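Question: Send over one sample?
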Amino acid sequence: MRLWRQLFRVGLAASRGTPGGRLRFRALVTAAAALGVASVAVFTAVATFEGREQRDTARGPMVADSRDKAALLWRETNDAFGSSPHALIYLEPLTKDAPLPPGLDRWPEPGEVFMSPRLAEAAKEHGSLDRYGTYAGTISPEGLRSRSERIAYLRSATAPEDLDDKVWLPVRGFGVYFPALNPDTYRRTLSGTAGTLAVLLVVPALAFVVVAARVGSTTRDRRSQLVNALGASWSHRAVINVGEALVPCTVGTGLALIPAGFLLAANVRIPFTGYVLSAADMRQTWPLLAGLLVVSWLVSVITVVGLHRVQRSAESTRPGASSARLPKWRLMVCGAGVAGIVGSQYLTERAQVPVFLTGTVVMWAMLPTVVAMLSVKAGRKIAESGYRAGNAGKLVAGRWTVAHPGVLVRLSVVFVIGIGLISHIQVWNSRFGDTAAAARAITDRVGDTLLTVTSSTLTDSTVQELSQRLPAGARLLSADGNLSEERARLDLTGSCADLKALGLPCATTRKQVNPTADPRLDELAGPYQGNLTVRAVDRVGVPGANGMLVVVTDEPGQQAAVEKAAYGVHPGINVEPPGEGWVIGALQKSNVNTWLSLFGGTGLAMLLGAGLVAAAAEFVRIRTSLAPLSVLSGNTRVFRTVSWWFLTLPLLGTTVIATAVTNWHSLFFVVSLREGQFSWPVLAAAASFFAAAAIGVGMLAARSARRAAPLWQPQAD
C-alpha cells in the first residue's frame, strides 16, 4: 500500500507538472464534462418518460361496462390553433360524487372550459380564448403529460342530445393507461430517444474522451518506459494513470452537475424546441442521475488507464512504448459495421433500424483507424521519396507518419464523424421537412377563407343553427365526395344566392363545373381529380357519410369566428382549412428536425472540441520536436514541408474518404427507406469546411514551430 500511495502521488504530480500538462488537464476536464453532459441528457430522457407515463396512467379514464355503472360520460375530439393540434375532452357528470380528472379542482360548469397553460397561451395568441366557451382557468401540472401539452376539459353550454351515442364513453373513474388520450402525432419512445442520444451525443463525447486520453502521450510514454524498466507491472502503471486522471476527470464530471442542478431546481424550457422539462420528474429519479454521473466518471478514468499500455519486446531488454502499428482487428470490425449496414435491409422490420444504427456507429468509430492505416502506407512512400530527393521535410514527415499513426487517428475522428454527422442530419431533416413544405403550400394557396366542418353526429337542426350563427359574408355549402378512381367526384349543394356569389351556376340538377371561377374550390376538388358538380337547394342539410360542410368567407381572418359559432352549436365538431390535418401531421414530423438539430449540433460541438484538443496537443509536440531542424536545414521552410506532408495532406485524404463513405451511406439510407433526399450542396459544404480546417491545422503547426525555433537550446536528453 505504501508503494501504491507513492505511485498515486507520482500520478497526481504528473497531471500538473509535466510538459503539456496544462493542456492535458484542460482536455480531460472538458472531455469528462462533455461525457457528463451526455449522461445528464440520457437521465433527462428517462426521467421525463417515466413522469409522462405516471401522469398518463393517473388520468386515464376507466371505462365502465354500462352507463348504469358510470359516474360520468367522456368524449374526446381534436382541434388546432394554427398548425399545433390539441385535445378537447368533453365531460358530463352523471352523479353528484363523480370523480374529477387529475389537474382539476372542480367540475367545469356548462359552457366553461379549463385549458392547459400552453394551450391557453396559444388561444390568446389566436384570439380564440372563448372558442369553446367561458375560460375558467388552467389545468394543474399533475393532470398534464408534460408542461408543454395542449389539452382542454370542457362542458357543453347545453345538454347534448346524443349522450347515448357510441361516441360518449361511460367512465367510472380515473387511473388506468389510456393510449387514446391525446396521443402524439408521432409517438416518441424511450428506446428511440435513448438511441438518438447515444448516436448524436454519447458517441461524440466518448470520442472526445479518447482523444483527450492521448493528449501529451509522448511524456507519459517516456515515464511508462522508465517505470517499466524498473519492473512495474500493469497495475502499478494503472495506479499512476489513475492519479494523473483523477483530478481532471472529477472536475469535469463535477461541471456536469451545473446543468443537472438547474434541471433539479426549476422547470427548464429546452432552447429551440419549446419543450418544458419538469423539475419534479427530475427530482423523482435523482438516484439515476447520480448513478449515470458515477458511470461517466468511471468511463473517463478507465479510458485514460486502458489507452495507456506499455509492451516489452521479447528480443530486447530496452523498455519500449506501445507499438506504433495499428491493430488489424479494427479493420475487421469496420468491415463488420459495413456488413451490418448492408445486411439490415434483409432483416425483419423490427430489427432493421437497430442493426442499421449499430453498424453505422461501428463503421464510423473504426473508419479513422482505416484512414490512418492508409496514411501509414503513404508515409513510407513519402519518406522514400524525400530520401531520394534529399528533401529533409518529406523524409521527416514520412517517418513521423509511420511512427505516430495515433495522431492521425485522433485528428481523423473529428473529420470522419463530423462530415457523416452533418450529412445525416440533413438526410433525416429532409424526410420530414419536404413533406411539411408541400403541406404548407396547400394551406397557403387556400388560406383561411375556405373551411371544412365535419362531425359524425350532425343533424339538420344543428346545420341550420350554424348557418344562422356564421359571421356576415360567410356562405355555407354541403359537400359529398367519392374518391374511387373510376367515379371520383365532389358534389356541392347550397342556396342559389351562395352559389352565384361564388361564381357557380344555380341549377336544380347536378351540373359539372370544371374549372370554377374560384381557385379555392378547385383546390377543394383537387383530391377528386378536379371533378366538381353543383346543385342549388332551398336549405343545406347534413352531408353524407363521406361528406362535409364547407364555409366560404369573403375576407380572411374570420376562422376564429366560424369556429366559435360551430362549437357553440355542436360539441366535438371539427373546423379546419382543407388539408390542415395533413399540414399538422407534416409539421409535427418537421418538429422532430429541431430535436435532431439540437442533439446533432451539440454532438458536433463536442467533436470540434476534440479536434481542437488534438490539434493543440500536436502543436505542442511539433513546436518542441521540429525546432532543432532549423539548425540542421538552415531555413524555416522545412516546418511548412513537414506540416504539409504530416498533417495537411493526410487530413485532406481523410476528408476525401469520409466524403465518399458518407455519400454512399446517405444514399443507401435514402434508397432503403424510400424517403428523404440527399443534398450534394450540404455534403460539399461540409467537405469544404473540413478541407479548409486541414489546411489551417498544417499552417498553424508550421507557424508554431517557426516561432519556437529561435528559442531552441540543446538539452542533455
